[in-house]
Write a structure and sequence with these properties.
The protein is of the alpha/beta class. 46% of the residues lie in helices and 16% in strands. The strands form 2 sheets. An 8-stranded parallel sheet has the order 2-1-11-7-6-5-4-3. Strand 3, helix 4 and strand 4 form a beta-alpha-beta unit. The longest helix has 21 residues.
């Protein structure tokens, strides 16, 4: 497996205008020992052509010895609005060209859907997942023609539970379609056992996001958040928390996954230091898993 860095770790600095896409690539390539960089579509300069920027990122990655394993897309499948749904599918298909320019092996889609007010209080998950799967089938078929994998992340508060993601992957039913697994989302967002969830989905992983947290039975201060099952958590440096990275990575590795695992946690009080330490820990744990 390869150690990567998801661009999300720089989010605060990107939103504040302190960094741009190329700055992120430079930091990962020069200040860490990561092997992969994961760009997010939301961070392109909106004033410039996306594919021209992608060429620049690809060239810089090549110079720095980095690989783009996964290109992450934002998506709103808007299952109750046909025109928006169709536009989302078309945009994701168009983004495949960008992924190819980046020399990526996979793209990530977000299982998000906007809901009309009358549907928001009691959403019909079965209907939502079925309609979402239809759009993802279209994307997966186009991606297959381009030689790309598609991973849906267990993301958001609606369709991110382990069984919803399992159902979605089964409905899409394409050999190049699987899960962009984000291990701790299961625990933090749904209160699920993230180890059990990883076992349930391990054979369908096409990319992985690695966060880490401290977990406690009681809140220590107002920086701690509560999971739905009553546990309190706080993000920490990757590989130094309680998420059980060695076990999680072993599960997907033993199921046949040998792609990138991208660090997706940093600390606002020490963004750069926490990224560097997180990458070092990621490399160490991946090496130990593969050697065991």
């Amino acid at each position: 497996m390869k150690a990567g860095v998801c661009q999300w770790v720089f989010n605060r600095l990107l939103v504040d205008g302190q960094m741009n896409m190329m700055d992120c690539v430079e930091f990962v390539g020069r200040q860490t020992d990561a092997e992969c960089f994961e760009p997010l579509s939301r961070y392109w300069d909106p004033e410039r052509d996306v594919n021209e920027q992608a060429e620049e990122v690809r060239d810089l990655c090549e110079d720095l010895g980095l690989e783009v394993y996964c290109y992450t897309l934002d998506s709103d499948f808007a299952v109750y609005d046909r025109s928006v749904h169709e536009q989302t599918v078309a945009d994701c298909i168009l983004a495949l060209d960008t992924a190819l320019i980046l020399d990526a092996q996979a793209i990530r889609v977000d299982p998000r859907t906007s809901l009309p007010p009358e549907r928001a209080e009691k959403p019909d998950l079965s209907y939502i997942i079925e309609r979402m799967a239809e759009g993802m089938q279209e994307i997966a078929d186009e991606a297959a023609d381009a030689g790309l994998l598609v991973g849906v992340e267990n993301h958001g508060r609606l369709v991110g539970s382990m069984h919803s993601v399992r159902r979605l992957v089964d409905l899409v039913d394409r050999p190049n379609f699987g899960v962009n697994i984000d291990f701790t989302n299961f625990k933090n967002v749904f209160g699920e056992d993230h180890i059990e969830a990883t076992r349930l989905l391990a054979e369908d992983v096409v990319h992985a996001h690695a966060k880490d947290c401290l977990y406690r039975a009681a809140r220590e201060d107002d920086t701690w958040h509560e999971t739905p099952d009553g546990v309190f958590y706080k993000p920490t440096v990757g590989g130094e928390g309680d998420a059980q990275w060695p076990l999680l990575f072993s599960i997907i590795y033993e199921a046949g996954y040998d792609g990138a695992v991208s660090l997706e946690v940093s600390l606002s009080e020490d963004t750069f230091g926490s990224i560097t330490r997180g990458v070092d820990n990621l490399l160490r744990v991946l090496s130990e898993v593969e050697e065991s």
